[in-house]
Amino acid sequence: MDKCHRRRPRREVRPAREGDENLGVLKLLPGKWKSQDTGWNMIALPTEGPKFSYRLLMNQYSETLEFLEVDDNIPNRGVLRNDPNKQEEDKDPDQFLIGLDYKQVITQVAAEDRMIAIQEDGSEDIVASGLQGDVPSTIHHEPGLFLHMKDERSNNVDIARLATIPHGDSVLALGTSKVIEDPEALKKFRIPGINGLPIGVNPELPPLPSELPTRQKLGYMTPYSHYVEKPFRGTVPDTVSGFPGFNPKDPHDLLNVANRNLEFKRITRLMFDTEIESGGIVNIPFVVKQANAASMKSTFWIQELEGKLRMQYLQVVMLDFFPRFDGLPGLIRWPHISINTLEKVSR
Length: 347
Hints:
Elements: E1 12-15, E2 31-46, E3 54-76, E4 95-118, E5 124-127, E6 137-149, E7 159-165, E8 169-180, H1 183-187, H2 222-229, H3 253-258, E9 266-273, E10 280-283, H4 285-291, E11 292-305, E12 308-323, E13 331-346
Antiparallel strand pairs: 1-3, 2-3, 2-13, 3-4, 4-5, 4-6, 6-7, 7-8, 8-9, 8-10, 9-11, 11-12, 12-13
């Protein structure tokens, strides 16, 4: 049949339903996911003070993440470009996608920060800024889309995430998916480690003020030293054993703590990265000037357990501000890290 008269799949917008095979690797997402006090976030922010001053803010949060509607058979029209890999009967360059829209709302339940301040006697100390915000309060709202590429994939990229953040950021992150079913792999499953320390400064953490002689200048990374030595616990009492706290040097740890003694039946991994192919972040001018959100990597693990569905994610947004200290060109890259463990509460 002539291409011009070939029948095309009909585009359809409908309520999202768990198990919809058209969604491919996204089929378990539809519905509402919630967490209560299990989200953790760290972000460095420029602040008033001596040159290149910053504060390190730590948050504990609750979250609602809803996947509501499907947009199926979204067409991207293409033309033939003499592709030798196409068979004669399969020379159809059109691409079809399915979109799953989502809404994420995050509420801060605990927060604290630390920064270096100059005291009246000229000495330096590490203090709270008083700018950590109210508790509880909404700290993030994000509408967006997950996409599954049904065909015409590039370099194994089969998923994408589109996000719009009211701070003035627009995100396109491309990615790949993987389903883990092997019993041995599931038994050994762990969230891979990451380091939350900034890039472009001396990676060695300085001692805390209590370990220094009086009036000695504090190291630039002292706010990080504080939370490495005294990990942020939020609302979790010191009497709770086995809880290591949220540590900027190993911010992934709490995800593995949440996985202790669990038996996974299957795990679907969705990995997104704005630095893959045509991905990227566009920000309003104020954000670019103050703390430019330059890249984002996020990984979601959809975990099937007996009788329930869980989701974990680890997200790293690189914020660029202040000149690097290591002699290399560009700005210091400050990891803005968010982790959480959610359960599906309605389908």
